[in-house]
Specification:
- The chain has a single domain, classed as UDP N-Acetylglucosamine Acyltransferase, domain 1.
- Helices cover about 25% and strands about 25% of the residues.
- The protein has 5 helices and 18 strands.
- A 7-stranded mixed β-sheet has the order 1-4-7-12-15-17-18, with no helix packed on it. Strands 2-5-8-13-16 form a 5-stranded parallel β-sheet.
- β17 and β18 form a beta hairpin.
- α2 packs antiparallel against α3.
- It is globular.
- This is Acetyltransferase.
- It is an enzyme of class 2 (transferase).
- Belongs to the transferase hexapeptide repeat family.
Length: about 210
């Protein structure tokens, strides 16, 4: 016999709201409430709350309130993570985010699924599929990432995308459903390296 939590994390049908799941959910609600009610003078406190909420994090992370998640303890994040306003992560299955990942405003990461058959769905049984996001990824505003998706390394997801299938490394992908637009090239790197060098040559250092 398995618990609902064990079934949930295994991607099987489960029923939310009892046992360990209820306790994890309550803890998540408390920590996100404290986080969302914190002030701009409490940046260290915010990081402490996020580190208690998530399964694991890198040293550097910043999430702009408000933020919502189901459990938090199923979310693992690498170093140097940034999420803008209104980020939602529904983590009924593991969510793994790499290092140097940027989320625009209102990015949604949704692992939860519901049965297609209405009678089974009406029993409130549900399931989840894990989501993985690689290193050096920029996810544009209002993007929706659906259950079971893997996004590779060095990827840009265009604003408003609905990601329903895996995205390979080193591409720009856009649209609904999200599809690869083009590969990121050496010419892209050279162009942005030139602009970066110009910036550091010309910028007046603020004191």
């Amino acid at each position: 016999m398995a618990t609902n939590k064990e079934n949930m994390l295994a991607g099987k049908l489960y029923l939310a709201g009892s046992g360990d799941l209820a306790r994890d959910h309550k803890k998540s609600r408390m920590l996100t409430r404290l986080f969302n009610n914190s002030t701009e003078e409490q940046l260290g406190y915010r990081v402490e709350l996020l580190k208690e909420l998530f399964c694991s994090t890198g040293e550097s992370l910043y999430i702009e309130p408000p933020f919502r998640c189901d459990y938090g303890c199923n979310i693992s994040i690498g170093n140097n993570f940034y999420a803008n306003y209104d980020c939602i992560i529904i983590d009924v299955a593991p969510v793994t985010i790499g290092s140097n990942v940027l989320f625009g405003p209102r990015v949604g990461v949704y692992t939860a699924g519901h049965p297609i058959d209405a009678e089974v769905r009406n029993t409130m049984l549900e399931f989840g599929k894990p989501i993985t996001i690689g290193n050096n990824v920029w996810v544009g505003a209002n993007t929706v990432i659906n259950p079971g998706v893997n996004i590779g390394n060095n990827v840009i997801i265009g604003s408003g995308a609905v990601v329903t299938k895996d995205i390979p490394d080193n591409v720009i992908a856009v649209g609904n459903p999200c599809k690869v637009l083009r590969t990121i090239t050496d010419e892209d790197k050279q162009h942005w390296e030139t602009l970066k060098d110009e910036y550091y040559r010309d910028i007046e250092i603020d004191q």
